[in-house]
Amino acid sequence: MIDESLLNSLNAKEKEIFKKGLKDLIDQTYVIEDEYKKLNESYTSLQDFIHQIIEVQPNALWVLDANGDIFLENSEAKKIGGILKQFQHEETTKEVEFESNFYLLKRVYQGDKAIISATDITEGKRQERLVSMGQVAAHLSHEIRNPIGSVALLASTLFKKVDPSIKPLVMEIKKSIWRVERIIKATLLFTKGLQTNITSFTLDKFIPECEKSVQHYSYSKEIAFSFSLPRVEIKGDFELLNLVIQNFIFNAIDAIEEGEKESGIVSIEYKENEQDIVLHVKDDGKPIENKNILFEPFKTTKTKGNGLGLALSLQIIQAHHGKINLLSDEKGFEIRIRKSSD
């Protein structure tokens, strides 16, 4: 409020000066208000910009205030917010396992704020584990290969000389040795890497190989086999693809062995397709328990095997520019290989 007595005491010139000063003050107030609005808009825009910056980061990111409360976080951080409980205030770097994944946590300070990032290193850990397990497996395979070769030779000699009543027992020994030799071969192939030898052949060439492999495999239930492979030309590495087909046959046999029924059927069917060679390998055995680890090396839900069969099969099929899929309407797998895979 302006004092009226003060105004009345002013002469005309002083009143004019006062009026002009008041107008300038009001105008300056509007200018300051306008600048404040612009500054506020700029601050809001800067906040949005900072939010966008941390949001596009592939890692989880938090900004904590001096009290340790979350000041800022991106959407990745919100997904795994509970991980911060495992990161103590005095720690600057730490590897943490959270919800079956591994993360590398890092903390840096900017003024009174702490910036924490969490990088998913699960795949790196998995690769480290595979390399380590692969090295051990390869070493053991090399160590086992020579004595197994000697045992196989002795078993063959023994089979020729023993009484006929003992031959079935020796045959089971030979089957077990054959299986160990397959495991050794698969392990060395997986750990050393694949080199394909592409040739042309027809699918029906796999039939006698499938029949022979079944004769070498031990199982106790009544299992019927159907290998419907036509005389259709394919280009690929015959030995490696033969190994793939045998792996799926043995998986099917194991599934029937572990199932509740006393008998089962294993079949391989060829499906007509213009672009690909398509094979369906099916069985009516025990359902697949964990589809997420099907092709994970050294992991298996079966009582038999070392968890390399499907992983190696996928590696071989991918080397032929193909795919392996689970069938949706029946229990089994679909193998797809390009008709021209060289």
Strand content: 15-25%
CATH superfamily of the largest domain: Histidine kinase-like ATPase, C-terminal domain
Structural class: alpha+beta
Assign the CATH topology of the largest domain. Answer: Heat Shock Protein 90
Distance between the termini: 94 Å
Strand line-up in the sheet with most strands: 2-1-5-4-3
Q: Uncertain runs with pLDDT below 50, 5 residues or more?
A: none
**SSE pattern, N- to C-terminal:** HHEEHEEEHHEHEEHEEHEE
* CATH class assignment of the largest domain: Alpha Beta
As an assembly, this protein is single chain
* CATH architecture verdict of the largest domain: 2-Layer Sandwich
Q: How is the main sheet built?
A: 5 strands, antiparallel
Shape label: elongated
Q: In percent, how helical is the residue content?
A: 40-55%
| E-strand count | 12
Number of helical runs? Answer: 8
Report Rg: 37 Å
Mean pLDDT: 83
Number of domains: 4
What does the secondary structure layout of this molecule look like, with pairings?
Layout (H helix, E strand, L loop, with lengths): L3 H6 L2 H44 L4 E5 L5 E4 L1 H5 L13 E6 L2 E10 L2 E8 L1 H40 L5 H26 L6 E4 L3 H11 L5 E7 L4 E4 L1 H21 L4 E9 L4 E8 L25 H11 L3 E4 L5 E7 L4
Parallel strand pairs: 7-9
Antiparallel strand pairs: 1-2, 1-5, 3-4, 4-5, 6-8, 9-10, 10-12, 11-12
